Each structure stands twice: as C-alpha cells, then as structure tokens.
Amino acid sequence: MKKMETIVVEATLPEQDLADLENWLANDEARSRPFRAARPQRMLSIFDSPHEYVMFKGGAGSQQAYSEMRLAYIHGLYFATVVLALSCLEQELAGSLYAGGSDIAARWSLEKLLAAARDSGIIDDEAFKAIDDLRTVRNAYAHFRPPLHPTSKVMRALGQEIHMDDVSERDAIKALEVVAEYFNR
C-alpha cells in the first residue's frame, strides 16, 4: 500500500492583489447595499423581537442556524435561508423533546420529530403543516428534481406565474415566517 503524502500549501496574495480584492468588495457591497437594506426591513416586519430575546431549546446549534438564517436572508442567499430555517427548527424540536424526556429525539428524522412534537403538544396542527410544507420545499432544493417534477423550481414558478428567481425569494420569506411563528407561539 502506497503511503499518502500530505502537502500543505500556504496561499498568500501580494499586497497589490489584496488591495484589488478589497476594492472589488467595496464596489460590490456598494451596489448591493440598497437590496440589503430593504431585506432587513422586510425581515424585521416578520419577527416580533430582535434575536437576542429568543430562548433556544435546541442549544448553540439552533442559535447559530437562527443567526445565520437572518444574515443569509439579508444578503439575498435564499436557498441558504430555507436550509438554515429548517436546521434551526429541527434542532429546536429535538431540543424540546429531549428536555421533555425523549433522549433519542436527537437521532430522529425531521418527519418523526414533527409527529412527536405535535403529539406532545409542542406544536399544533397548523405549525406541523407549515414546517412540513417547508420541509418539502427544502427537499426540492437539497435533492435533485427533474425539471417537470411538481416540486421543481421550474414547475413551481409556472404554477405561481412568477419568475424562477422570485420562487426562491418567496420560499425564503415563508421560511422566515415559519421560524418567527414557531418562536412567537
């Protein structure tokens, strides 16, 4: 068996290249600032309280997902917003069930967590449906769907009669609304 050799390459940029990258970032940030300014306004209209007043039963993982979800939305990272929203909710449900005595909740799928959370009264039927619908959206992002599959972005855009890019933005807004509703209950 041949021994694998690890080579560490330290990448450094000449000062001129670093200055060019800083200028590029400054210009890019200036162009996107109006869009980034509008998104926090929308996000703050969805959430009743700033994130520092949220109690996380899912621990540091759900807190980080929550914070990163909000930042992802501000920066227009809609796919990431949806995935982080579900990650936050999954950890919150598992944490709530664990706190209620279910030591194995940490190993359950989101489907099983949702059912157990509904059965134990952590969420109601409306929250169950909202989170499960968001799970379906996330699955369509995370797993390949042929273009004509009913949950593909193409088919959803056609069904809603909107541009495909707007589908992602709507999904992200819906994800924020579901998370806000969960924490505001």
List the helices and strands and how they pair.
Blueprint: H1 15-46, H2 60-74, H3 78-99, H4 110-119, H5 125-142, H6 153-160, H7 164-184
Helix pairs in contact: 2-3, 3-4, 3-5, 3-7, 4-5, 5-7, 6-7
Architecture overview:
The structure is a single chain. The protein is globular and about 60 Å long. Helix content is 68%, strand content 0%. It has one domain (32-184). Helix 2 (60-74) runs antiparallel to helix 3, helix 3 (78-99) crosses helix 5 (125-142) and helix 3 (78-99) runs parallel beside helix 7 (164-184). The longest helix has 32 residues, at 15-46. By secondary structure, it is mainly alpha-helical. The chain has helices at 15-46, 60-74, 78-99, 110-119, 125-142, 153-160, 164-184.
Question: How many E-type strands?
Answer: 0
How would you sum up the global shape?
Answer: globular
Order of secondary-structure elements? HHHHHHH
Terminal Cα separation, in Å?
Answer: 59 Å
